[in-house]
Amino acid sequence: MHEGTTIAIVEDDAEIRTLLAGYLEGEGFRIVALDGAAGLDRLLGSGAQPDLVVLDWMLPGEDGLSICRRLRQSGGPPIVMLTAKAEDIDRVLGLEMGADDYVSKPFNPRVLLARIRAVLRRAHGTAVPGAGAAPERVSIADLVVDLAARTVTTGDPAAEIPLTSAEYDLLHCFVTRPQRVLSRDQLLDWTRGRTADAFDRTIDVQVSRLRHKLDASGSRTAALLKTVRNAGYILAAPVRSGTA
User: Which domains does the chain have, with CATH numbers?
Assistant: First the structure.
């Protein structure tokens, strides 16, 4: 099922690294097990690009947050962070640095596997469950969303807005359900499925990040995503087919 899909595990605890590598290899993934930033840099420097990185937060030397930020700035692969930090603020920091998802230690390997599969589905463009039919390319204000290529551009000449796979998947939910109030539970279910925690606040963080990126792009989109008190979020502008 996952033939050819490579996951880099960056974890300094040798026991966890070995157990996790064995488990994921048993699920059909190709695994590169690394103990820190230097090993990951050598891998990337060799031209090998993993499909996903499982990244421990607490690493000696350069920590996981710093590595995450570097990977995201260079357009690196999707990232699932492992963290022993259980506070919401710590999880928010990971998402702010560009992680696509996180799993708290101690964790059930099956939960991590489900999160990995969900992130890979988003990165590879699998349709979000529950979405309505949509053309391959749509326009919202001066944004152009290419649903096939999973890109968002604005301006003339067109400039791409860099979104993580999780942020794009969230935008896809709004684009395919415009001018409808979507609850955070619906958004969690559509973007993360049954593995989502009922008290998970990642949707709120990702909506905030998405707003910030759209606003920072210089487009006329600051008021597109609106919060509906005690209800959820809404894409307030109409969605038009094509780029006209």
Answer: 6-123 (3.40.50.2300), 137-241 (1.10.10.10)
